[in-house]
């Protein structure tokens, strides 16, 4: 009799524990089902190679929303700490601390046409060895699907280690907030580039009006999610106070399939009077009003300010001027025409940092990407492995 009673008690306890486990599983899935689906998509595309100073390359496909509408509706963020607080609170429900940072980056980009008439946007990301991820998002609710590239060190992940543990992978859920470049399904592409304004590696832009706030990389996310054209991207940027991250400063290039492009710069009066980031104003250099461009058919950007008169009479160094002149000369020779996406990639390879004569810390081109704005496709090469199938990846939007 006692054995039967004990057996019944044990069965009840087992049933109660099973019910508790199921309830917890249901609660976790209800709370984090999009995040769990996203983490399940995480995969490595290529391995680290220290001999070539390669980081690993990963791919993440985001499921559902990532709270960006909520980020905007609560006023955005005026600094990194506010952005980190929002991401931690929204994505991990405050349980797991998140990290977001940026650093000194170089980079080159251009727009051109292919012989078949497609518009392309090519971009090199120059930095020290680091892990990267190609990120796909499709949040719905009237927002665009997109592909973008992120540097995983910006999320607090070690640049010299693989992303392996569940804790490390969980940090990648903040990836939509730190794009370096990308393309959306409206054929709008954009990229971020150091501009070295002010002292040292730059004085951050920190505009102060009654507009809502946005940070460096979240401005790119805003454009990727909402812009139907370059004009839309510019209009969106004009609605916010920009606050650059990590004691650095940046400018941007945006392009679309119509052939329209623009460089967005927040500047003071000139290079000698640009140490107060709060006093800067947005200046837009359209491809048909860019005084440094030879033609409306292409546009180039590297790491110096292009606003006319900015460097007149100053001793400030124009960072990346040598790469700028090389790309400009190549496009001038062909009237802004490249044969195809592979030829656009060849042009990026010509200023790859492992072979380009440079003496700064950004000694690697971490990734090179050609966005076809006409057919909404992506040609992506990691760590200057140009022409190598194992390091070359292609993606397609809208099909």
- Order of strands across the main sheet: 1-2-5-6-7-8-11-12-13
The low-confidence runs, each spanning 5 or more residues with pLDDT under 50, are none
The first-level CATH class of the largest domain is given as: Alpha Beta
Number of domains: 2
Full CATH superfamily name of the largest domain:
Penicillin V Acylase, Chain A
| SS field, number of helical segments | 8
Structure class = alpha+beta
Report strand %. Answer: 15-25%
- What are the secondary-structure elements, in order, as H or E? HEEHHEEEEHEEEHHEEEEEHEHEEE
- Major pleated sheet: 9 strands, mixed
| C-alpha Rg (nearest Å) | 23 Å
The CATH topology of the largest domain comes to: Penicillin V Acylase, Chain A
Name a few traits of the molecule.
399 residues; 7-stranded mixed beta sheet; 9-stranded mixed beta sheet; Penicillin V Acylase, Chain A; hydrolase activity; 24% strand; alpha+beta; Carcinine hydrolase/isopenicillin-N N-acyltransferase family protein
List the helices and strands and how they pair.
Blueprint: H1 2-41, E1 43-46, E2 57-61, H2 68-73, H3 80-91, E3 108-114, E4 119-127, E5 132-137, E6 146-151, H4 166-171, E7 181-184, E8 189-194, E9 213-215, H5 216-226, H6 230-238, E10 241-243, E11 250-255, E12 261-267, E13 281-286, E14 299-301, H7 321-333, E15 337-338, H8 341-349, E16 364-372, E17 377-382, E18 392-396
Parallel strand pairs: 2-5, 3-15, 9-10
Antiparallel strand pairs: 1-2, 3-4, 3-14, 4-16, 5-6, 6-7, 7-8, 8-11, 11-12, 12-13, 16-17, 17-18
Helix pairs in contact: 5-6
């Amino acid at each position: 009799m006692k054995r039967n009673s004990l057996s019944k008690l044990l069965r009840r306890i087992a049933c109660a524990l099973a019910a508790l486990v199921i309830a917890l599983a249901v609660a976790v899935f209800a709370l984090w089902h999009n995040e769990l689906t996203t983490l399940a998509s995480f995969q490595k595309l290529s391995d680290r190679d220290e001999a070539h100073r390669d980081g690993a390359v990963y791919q993440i496909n985001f499921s559902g929303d990532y709270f960006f509408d909520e980020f905007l509706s609560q006023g955005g963020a005026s600094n990194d700490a506010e952005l980190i607080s929002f991401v931690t609170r929204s994505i991990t429900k405050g349980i797991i601390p998140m990290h977001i940072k940026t650093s000194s980056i170089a980079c080159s980009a251009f727009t051109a046409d292919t012989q078949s008439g497609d518009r392309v946007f090519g971009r090199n990301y120059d930095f020290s060895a680091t892990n990267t991820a190609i990120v796909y998002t499709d949040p719905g609710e009237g927002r665009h699907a997109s592909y973008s590239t992120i540097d995983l060190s910006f999320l607090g992940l070690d640049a010299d280690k693989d992303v392996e543990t569940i804790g490390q992978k969980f940090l990648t859920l903040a990836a939509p907030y730190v794009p370096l470049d990308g393309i959306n399904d409206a054929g709008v592409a954009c990229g971020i580039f150091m501009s070295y304004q002010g002292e040292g590696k730059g004085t951050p832009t920190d505009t102060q009006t009654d507009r809502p706030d946005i940070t460096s990389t979240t401005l790119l996310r805003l454009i990727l999610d909402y812009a139907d054209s370059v004009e839309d991207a510019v209009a969106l940027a004009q609605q916010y106070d920009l606050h650059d991250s990590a004691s650095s400063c940046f400018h941007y290039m945006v392009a679309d399939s119509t052939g329209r492009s623009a460089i967005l710069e927040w500047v003071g009066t000139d290079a000698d009077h640009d140490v107060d980031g709060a006093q800067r104003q947005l200046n837009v250099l359209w491809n048909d009003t860019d005084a440094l461009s030879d033609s409306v058919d292409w546009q180039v950007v590297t790491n110096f300010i292009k606003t006319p008169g900015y460097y007149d009479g100053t001793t400030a160094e124009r960072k990346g001027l040598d790469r700028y002149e090389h790309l400009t000369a190549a496009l001038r020779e062909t009237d802004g025409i490249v044969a195809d996406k592979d030829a656009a990639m060849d042009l990026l390879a010509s200023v790859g940092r492992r072979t380009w004569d440079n003496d700064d810390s950004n000694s690697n081109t971490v990734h090179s990407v050609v966005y076809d704005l006409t057919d909404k496709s992506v040609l992506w090469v990691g760590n200057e492995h140009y022409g190598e199938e194992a390091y070359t990846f292609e993606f397609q939007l809208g099909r």
